[in-house]
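Before we proceed, please read the two lines closing this message. Tell me what the C-alpha cell row says about the fold.
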Amino acid sequence: MLSSVNIDYFILLMALLLIIGVLTTKFSTRLGVPALVLFLVVGMVMGSDGLGFIPFNNPYLAQLIGIIALVVILFEGGLQTKWSSVKAVAKPSLSLATIGVLLTTIVVAVAAKLIFEVSWLEGFLFGAIVGSTDAAAIFAVLKGQNIKSKLSSTLEAESGTNDPMAVFLTLSFIQLLTIDDSSYLMLIGSFFWQMGAGLALGYGLGLLASYAINKINLDSSGLYPIFALAFALLTYSLNDLIGASGLLAVYVAALVIGNRDLTYKHSIFRFNEGFAWMMQILMFIILGLLVFPAQLLSFDIIVKGFLLALILIFVARPVAVFLTTPRMGFSTREKIFLSWAGLKGAVPIVLATFPMTMGVENSQLFFNVVFFVVLTSALIQGSTISYFAEKLGLNGPEKVEPPHTLELVSIGKANAEIIEFAVNENMKVTGQALKDLELPSDVLISAIIRNGDLVTPHGETVIKPGDILYILVAKQTIKALKRLMNETKDEEN
C-alpha cells in the first residue's frame, strides 16, 4: 500500500514534470528542436537509467497512457481541421495512409533484414512499426507554420488516417510470429473491416455527439468540453470492442464535430487544445522513462539505428510518396517536401511496446531501435521542416490567428453567442463600412481586433483584411450570418 509520503512524492514529481514539460516547449522553439524530442529526453533523464527519480519499466502502463494520449491528440487535431481542406486532398492522403505505409514497410523490412540480420517476418515488423507518419508530431510541428494549405492539409489528413494501416500491419506480423496457424486471408479481411467500420462508426458517433452537445442543456458551460471528450473516448472504446479502428474513428468523429455549429464551441476547442498538450507531455515523458539510455546509446544501436533511420528518411518515404501520388496535382518540389515531412513520433514508440507486451522474441531490440529512429527523424526532419518549405518556395500566406484575448461565450439563457470571424482580402465584406453591411437585425459586431489592437466599431468603421471580428448573434441566425460573411468577391461578380 502506498504511504502518504509516497503519494506526496508522486504528486510532487507529477507537478515538476508538467512544469518542466511546459517550459520545455519554450526552449524547443528557441532551439529549433521539436518539443517531443525534449519531452523524451526529460523522461530518459528522470528514469531508472538516468537520475533515477522515477523508476519505471512497465510497457503495459506506457501502452495504456500512450493510447489514451493519442485519442486525445487525434481528437484535438480533428476538431481543428476544416473539412473543406481535407476533402480537397482526400485522394493523396488516403493513398499515402494505406499504400504509402505498405511501401514504407516493405523498404524498411528489407533494410532491417540486412542490417540487423533478423528473420523476414521480424524485418517486416520493424517496417510496420515505423511505417506511419505520426499525428502528434505533425500537428505539433505544423501548428502556426505558414506552409501551403494543400501540403499541410495532406500531411494532417494522412497522419490522422494512417494509424489503422500501421496498427493492422504491426499486429498481423506479431500474430504471424507468435501463432503458427495464422491465416493471411483473415488478416486481409480484418483490415477492410477495421477501415470500413471505423469510418462509418466515427461518422455516426460524430453526428450523435454534435446533436447531444447542442440539444442537452447542461448546468455549467465547463461541462461541455468534458462531454465532447467523453464522446472521443467512447468512440475509441466502442470501435476497439468490435475490432474496428478506434483511432481512425476518433479522427473522423472529431472532423464531424469540429465542422458543425456547436454550443460553447470555443470552450470545447480551447479545453481540448490544452488537454492535448498535457497528454502529449505526459505521453512522451512516460515513453522516455521506458527507455534505458545505456542500451539505447550502445555503439551497435547507434550505428545500425542511424543507418536504418537514413534509409527510412531518404529512401523508404520518398519511394512511398512518389509512387502513391502520381497525377494528383503535386509538383516535384511538393513531393520532395511531403517526403521530408514524414515525421515519426509517438505512434511508432507506442506500437513498439506491443511486441514487449505480447511476448515477441527480441522485443527489447525492437523498442530500442524504433526509439532511436524516432529521435533521429524528429531531430533531422522535425527541426528543418520550415527551412525546407522556405527553400522550396512552398510557404503560403501568413495565417491569421485569432488572439483569443477575449473569451468567446455562448449565452445560454439569452439563446445567443459571441463568435469570431477572420477576414481575408477575397471576402465581399472587405473594404466595406459597417453601416453598409446588410446584417440581420439580431446581429451586432461588438469588437474588432486589428494588428493586435482593439478597435471599437461604429458605422463608419471599414473592415480590412486580417481583421478579427467578434460578433454577437442569435443562435438561429448563425448559419445565415456565416453564409453572408463568407461570400467572396468572385461570387459577387
Strands lie at 410-411, 416-422, 443-450, 453-455, 468-474. The first helix runs from residue 4 to 31. The longest strand covers residues 443-450. The chain has a mean pLDDT of 83.
